[in-house]
């Protein structure tokens, strides 16, 4: 039983292999090739690489509260496998090396109050997910590069309230992939890395929850029907200080669906070829521009503030360079 009164049960299968039902509701089952490490307050270090493939296969299971895990080495996880599972509250995890994930899950970190640092580079394809973090009060820092491609492919999935995310790494998201998908309230995101996102249904960052705070310091290049940031939830607050270039019909820099939100565009914004810049839907939202915004080409829109009691303010320079009218 955890401090939050969540049941935790672990034991041995009939075949002698480990299993655990953890505090977040995951049933974790080892196979005959899984490395299992169990115990609270332990430190684990490994520089071993990993190559695992096959439906329901799991490479490593680390179970226990307050474990400290340092994992280096390259990994390849494919065809429905899971590279590693770290289950327990209060774990501290450092993961580095080159990771390739194709139609699989690279790592599952399950538990409240976890801290995870990522370095190295990640390539995700085939509908796979590099990292799933499930639990409240998670802290995540990424300094590595990410290449996410293909429908259903995702870099990081976070399910829990009060997540804190710092990203200093560069991201490339294409062909329907998603850089980060966060479900939960009171999320704080600080993104200093550069982002390139292209292709229909591609999204750099998607947040589903209230009271989100997002600070984008890095430059963003968005094209081909992609979206930079999408937030579904009330009381969202977003500040973009980096430059954004958004191009092509169906593309948008930021979409906020919810009430009582605010957005400040402080960096330069370039909207071309029928794209949209900043879009807010709902009631009581405020959009403010303090940077230089340029809109050109037919059907391009710089700012959309739709709904009742919404406002748009600008102190920056708005430039329209068109042969046909654009819209602010």
Short description:
The chain is mainly beta.
Question: Main traits of this protein?
Answer:
328 residues, mainly beta, 12-stranded parallel beta sheet, 0% helix, 55% strand, elongated, BigA/YdbA-like_N
Give the averaged pLDDT, no decimals: 91
Strand order of the largest sheet: 4-7-10-13-16-19-22-25-28-31-34-37
Strand content: over 45%
Discrete helix count: 0
The value of Rg in angstroms is 21 Å
Q: Which residues form runs of ≥5 with pLDDT under 50?
A: 323-328
Number of spatially distinct domains: 2
Through-space gap between termini: 55 Å
- Please summarize the sheet with the most strands: 12 strands, parallel
- The secondary-structure class comes to mainly beta
Number of E-type strands = 39
Helix percentage range = under 10%
Overall 3D form? elongated
């Amino acid at each position: 039983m955890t401090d939050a009164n969540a049941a935790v049960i672990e034991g041995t299968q009939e075949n002698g292999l480990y299993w655990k039902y953890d505090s977040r509701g995951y049933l974790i089952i080892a196979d005959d090739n899984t490395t299992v490490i169990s115990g609270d307050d332990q430190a684990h270090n490994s520089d071993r690489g990993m190559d695992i493939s096959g439906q329901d296969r799991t490479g490593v299971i680390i179970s226990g509260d307050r474990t400290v895990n340092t994992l280096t080495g390259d990994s390849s996880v494919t065809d429905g496998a899971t590279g590693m599972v770290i289950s327990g509250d209060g774990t501290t995890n450092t993961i580095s090396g080159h990771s390739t994930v194709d139609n699989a899950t690279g790592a599952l970190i399950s538990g409240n109050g976890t801290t995870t640092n990522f370095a190295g580079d990640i390539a995700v394809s085939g509908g796979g997910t590099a990292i799933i973090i499930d639990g409240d009060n998670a802290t995540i820092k990424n300094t590595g590069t990410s290449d996410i491609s293909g429908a259903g492919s995702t870099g990081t999935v976070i399910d829990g309230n009060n997540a804190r995310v710092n990203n200093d790494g560069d991201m490339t998201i294409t062909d329907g992939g998603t850089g980060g998908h966060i479900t939960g309230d009171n999320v704080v995101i600080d993104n200093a890395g550069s982002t390139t996102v292209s292709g229909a249904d591609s999204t750099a960052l998607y947040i589903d929850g209230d009271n989100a705070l997002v600070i984008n310091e890095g430059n963003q290049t968005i094209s081909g029907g992609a979206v930079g940031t999408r937030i579904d939830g009330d009381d969202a607050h977003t500040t973009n200080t980096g430059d954004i270039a958004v191009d092509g019909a169906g593309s948008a820099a930021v979409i906020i669906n919810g009430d009582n939100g605010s957005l400040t565009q402080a960096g330069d914004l370039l909207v071309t070829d029928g794209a949209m810049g900043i879009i807010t839907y709902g009631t009581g939202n405020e959009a403010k521009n303090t940077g230089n915004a340029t809109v050109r080409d037919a059907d391009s829109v710089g700012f959309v503030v739709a709904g009742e009691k919404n406002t748009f303010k600008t102190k920056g320079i708005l430039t329209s360079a068109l042969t046909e009218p654009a819209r602010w």
